[in-house]
Amino acid sequence: MNRDDVKFLQSIQSYPSVSILLTTHRTAPENQQDPIRVKNLVEQAKERLQQNFSDRELSPVLEQLEQAVESIDYPHTLDGLALFANHELYRVYYHPFSFRDRVVVDENFATRDLVFALNRTPRYWVLALSEQSTRLFTGVLDSLEEVRTKAFPLTHGGPGGGSNLPGGQGINTSAYRDDAHRQFFRDVDQAFQPLMAEEPLPLVLVGIDRYFSFFNEVSEHKDAVIATLSGNYDKTSVHDLGKFVYPWCKRF
User: Fold this and answer.
1) Counting CB atoms within 10 angstroms of each CB, which of 31, 90, 141, 221 has the fewest?
2) What is the pTM of this model?
3) Domain end: 49, 84, 119, which one?
4) What total of structural domains would you count in the chain?
5) Better-scored residue on pLDDT, 238 or 248
6) Cα(125)–Cα(136) distance, integer angstroms
């Protein structure tokens, strides 16, 4: 979850809006009780709703709430879980900080705990540099969330990436490939610029050393880099990448 998610939740006014927050667990045996605790809080929410609404009025809200519960990925929960549902949408967020277990039914979603947690927990950016798909993440402790915009993830479609290098006598293909990579990572840096301007957080780079070199040549954000994690992580899951990145962040 990031600040944009919080702003989105805060922008919604619809009664009833259901918020369920609780502490979860990352490992067994404690996490085996998490589904039961979620079920109990959902039942508590239903009881509150049924006191004020007819079954017909409640049907859309309960459907969204059930979808939220079904979407929970229990093997990859963190320290806290937040579920939000109204008559037309649901959202589920995993958090690297715990919550007091509670159910809120109101005109707005309950975001106070989320804002407090975001403000007290250091955050950072992660750019996973790759010609296949350069991905951008926000990080909190060892938890990463991928940022998906019109720009990201960004794939290198130029020569040496998605298209072939030119051939022919006298053409230095290595130099041509290198120039194409510099241009690609210049595009990455420019796409990242407005996001960094809005939230000027520390930056961690992930990728092979060659990509670090090209990025540092063209980037306007070199001074923000606090750590680099060298290697090919193109196929690494978001969950595992957070585990690899965080030990480097703790040094700063």
Assistant:
1) 31
2) 0.67
3) 119
4) 2
5) 238
6) 7
